[in-house]
Amino acid sequence: MATGKEARALYNIGQAEGLSMWSPNVNIFRDPRWGRGQETSSEDPAVASRYAAAFVRGIQGSASNTRSAPPAVLLTSACCKHATAYDLEDWKGVSRYSFKATVTAQDLADTFNPPFRSCVVEGRANCAPTPPSTACQTANADLLTKTFRNSWGLDGYVAADCDAVAIMRSSQFYRPTAEDTVAATLKAGLDIDCGPYIQQYATAPIQKGKLTQQDVDKALNNLFTTRMRLGHFDGDPKAGVYGNLGAAQICTPEHKNLALEAALDGIVLLKNGAGVLPLKRGAVASAAVIGHNANDFLALLGNYWGPPCAPTTPLQGIQGFVKNAKFLAGCNSAACNADATPQAAALASSSDEVILFMGLSQQQESEGKDRTSLLLPGNQQSLITAVANAAKRPVILVLLTGVPVDITFAQSNPKIGAILWTGYPGQAGGLAIAKVLFGEKNPSGKLPVTWYPKEFTKIPMTDMRMRAAGGYPGRTYRFYNGKTVYKFGHGLSYSKFSHRLVTGRKNPAHNTSLLTAGRTATTEDNTGYHVDHIGDEVDRGQGEEPRAHGREAHGAHVPPLAERDRLPAGEAAGRVPQPAHQGRGECAPEV
Question: With 79 labelled, which of 26, 156, 159, 265 sits at a CA distance of 20 to 30 A?
Fold first, then answer.
């Protein structure tokens, strides 16, 4: 809701022209090379669906944990993008503008559609944008009208991403003329596009009878209904329901703390050999802070971002804990085609602790850019290895990336004692990383995606199949049957947890989640959060045993049910899982 409040505040003071938010991105993170994977929440439909609903409710001003109707006046209008099965930018000459994604009805129903259904049904989103890539979505009446509006109950508008309608004509030759293309999209259920194409070419099809007044009125009704819900016609916005929101509500201490909390909770401890972490504040006389991502706040922000409030770089965060912290970039950029390995090794050899900040940037992964390799770019690996060999004790490697990378070399190297993955943690990322490094925060993050080995790049990005078959390894933890660098859900803690099964029984109810009661306890002197994957939602008959959770069973989706507990040192938590009803998408023809 903090984002929604700041957006409304900017609108009220005249610094924003509209209140439609092109967020959240709830596409499934299907392929580790996807440049926009960093924008999404997970490879798992259940995780993405819950994220989608919570995001939409918050940004539109609804209570975050209820299915109640949106407020009478929306804070903003959320647009869940990009519906649906969109996850390729530009891979080996295959462009999103010309790529035709072939998706099975089963994969569409149980992988790609559920987050969008959750946006509409659970979150009550007012907008559903189609991707910038394919005519299959932008002019698909089965998807836009039968599914979104009639089946799911979308009570808002359907928008095409910028230039999507124009691309249908110029790159895909969907219809002979521009007017025919516009007519086809509006009749299928599209209401507006981000660009000017519909405005330019809608008049001619009306005059020629290819579009009716009813077609136009339907689109206008959907659009203006949402605008009315936003209060666009209620006069001075400062006199409205949200009129109290202004400059004072932007970058507030509360919102800064939320940014810090989000960054802290998202950090994943991948490796911690011999208890290298946490470091002890006051016990580190000198630290070498090495890496192109160590002192660049843009490296924290990812693909799309607004002006950050008082951002802190990792170097600045560490300097708050270590007086003698020396910085060396090591690489000229994330590409690392020019490096200072000898200087980095020399600095490492003269320092008590060495912390490397490596990873990617928007030059390797972003909208319009897919990766072709899962390895760290350029000379990063050789620099990391040289620094580790020169250091007095095992070094700490912090990775800032939005996608998985194959770091097998670091995983197996005892001289690289600890590895953290932060994603792109935002404005408070530098401070958050420092707090985790020095034990002020016990890491509790879990990987939302599978980390594949470099050999996975032999699989074409264009193969949209989810399920493994005939030598094809499948995708995501639900179907993939190959080797991994790190599994979905991996994440360590400074605490050690013990698990003990308390009870177990068959499920007497159909289509509910009833698994086992369990207890989780800390066994060390650290207070921490622990995420338990304690259950599944499954379809089974009365009295049947639960299927093995965490993976697909016979091709039926079994999403995990996760519980997050805060466990003070030495304490335990017990629970009996409750049913978790996660909606599924309806089957549709192959597109």
Answer: 265
Give the distance, in angstroms, between the CA of residue 149 and the centroid of all CA atoms in the same chain: 25
| Bond prior to 342 in cis (omega within 30° of 0) | no
pLDDT at 587: 23
Least confident of 13-22, 121-130, 134-143, 576-585: 576-585
Contacts of residue 156, defined as CB under 8 A and 6 or more positions apart, other chains included, come to: 77, 125, 126, 127, 128, 222, 225, 226
User: How does DSSP assign 528-552, residue by residue?
Assistant: EEEEEEEEE-----TTPPPPPTTS-
Closest Cα partner for 267 from 59, 381, 431? 431
Q: Is 217 a catalytic residue?
A: no
**Residues 372, 378, 379, 380, CA torsion sign:** negative
Pair of tokens at residue 259 = 């940014």
CA–CA dist 495, 442 (Å, integer): 8
Residues paired with residue 529 on neighbouring β-strands, in sequence order: 566
Q: Which two tokens stand for residue 575?
A: 């629970």
State the alpha helices, DSSP H only, in 338-407. Answer: 341-349, 380-390
Look-up: residue for tokens 């035709």? 100
Pick from 440, 437, 492: nearest CA to 287: 437
Contacts of the segment 473-476: beta carbons below 8 A, 24+ positions apart: 475/30, 475/31, 475/43, 476/28, 476/29, 476/30, 476/43, 476/44, 476/111, 476/449, 476/450
Alpha-carbon gap, residue 295 to 555, rounded angstroms: 46
> For residue 168, how many other CB atoms are within 10 A of its CB?
26
Residue 530: count of CB within 10 angstroms of its CB: 21
Q: Which residue has the tokens 């990391």?
A: 384
- Identity of the amino acid at 506: K
CA dist., res. 448 & res. 451, Å (int): 10
Q: Which has the closest alpha carbon to 158: 177, 174, 141, 170? A: 141
Six-digit token pair at 206?
A: 């009306």
Specify the length of the chain in residues.
591
Structure token digits, residue 17? 């022209």
HSE-CB of 543 using CA atoms within 13 angstroms: 0
Tell me the two tokens of residue 440.
Answer: 């002020």
Nearest to residue 156, comparing CAs of 215, 244, 228, 82?
228
130: helix, coil or strand? strand
What is the per-residue pLDDT across 344-382, written as a single tens digit (0 to 9) for each? Answer: 999 999 999 999 999 999 999 999 999 999 999 999 999
Q: Are 30 and 62 in contact (CB under 8 A)?
A: no
User: Smallest Cα–Cα separation from 211: which of 184, 191, 192?
Assistant: 184
pLDDT tens digit string along 179-237?
999 999 999 999 999 889 999 999 999 999 999 999 999 999 999 999 999 999 998 88
Q: Out of 110, 161, 193, 339, pick the active-site residue.
A: 161
| Nearest-angstrom CA–CA distance, 561 and 578 | 9
**Residue among 259, 227, 194 nearest 3 (CA):** 259
